[in-house]
Sequence to fold (128 residues):
Amino acid sequence: MALVRSRWIEVCSRFLIASVFINALPSKIINFQSTANWIASNGIPASHFLLSCAIILMISGSLFLIIGRPLRLGAILLLIFLVPTTLLFHSDLSTLSERNAFTKNLAIIGGLSLVANRAGKRKTIRKE
Fold:
């Protein structure tokens, strides 16, 4: 019984992590041009291409995280998006809002790293 409850905690936790990315997707898609312009204004070349890649990483990584297969790949895809985003866009720690965004992203990076690490060590749950 404890294993079944543990499994539900894991599923809910993965959904909560993925919800951060799912929540950010609509504005990136609906406001694609203005988001690409904002990325370019930060000195990042090929902003349209990179934004398209970011959206693909966020969608596929979130889906893999939620369905649990391939779990490690889902976590890695989201890390590929989040680590550079954090370093490029939230590294100015002079304002409280940027420090909060940076710290929040570090926490999510930690959670995704745990998911990626644990994914290879999952055991089959047997109902007895």
